[in-house]
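Lab notebook: predicted structure, single chain.

Context: the supervisor wants predicted structures on file for every construct in the current expression panel, including those that have not yet been purified. This is the next one on the list. No modifications to the sequence; it matches the entry in the shared construct table.
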Amino acid sequence: MRAADKLIIALDFPAAAEARKAVALLHGEAGIFKIGLELIYADGLPLVKALAEAGHRIFLDAKLSDIPNTVERATASATRLGTGLLTVHGADRKTLDAAVRGRGTSRTKLLAITVLTSLDAADLQQQGIGMAPAELVLHRARLAREAGFDGVVASAREAAAIRAALGKDFLIVTPGIRPAGSAAGDQARAVTPAEAIAAGADYLVVGRPITAAADPREAARQVVAEIGAALR
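Prediction complete. Output recorded below exactly as produced.
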């Protein structure tokens, strides 16, 4: 796998037209484009279908969480759009099992959201969760593996523990990536591309440090260069 194939560019835009421009500009600089909640609610779903039909690999970061019947049907609908990767909140087996049923025989890879990278121990305590972030991430990663998921979304700070516990074939997608010198923004557990690769991440999600850069193509190439150096 090329270093660029490990980069997922987050299309965090309020309109599909802006996302299309970014894809046209950054085509070839990354392996996957991510469409998340902001864009989903701004004509993002037709965009998923259009980009998939054009040959782009799409990560639909839908973060599904609902009663099992709804999750199952929503997952089935997402697969029909041509989604390559799909996220589901990984808090319980009922939700995870429903997504696996909804995927059926499609080639969509399911990823469980473990703990959002914007959250820290105090945030979890506020939710009534007594586990530390690292402990909860590993617990939910195990649930996802048992349910038949392909991998998880987790901070690179927990990636090494996930890799050690669940093996080399379990995908680890790491958001909260900030190149050296970048502002952390709203990320509580941010890491650099090199740190994520060293920890065992398979894919790195980068959004604003690339899409909001003065030269997005050059910013993407710098991230890919850092990934490549870490791989070597």
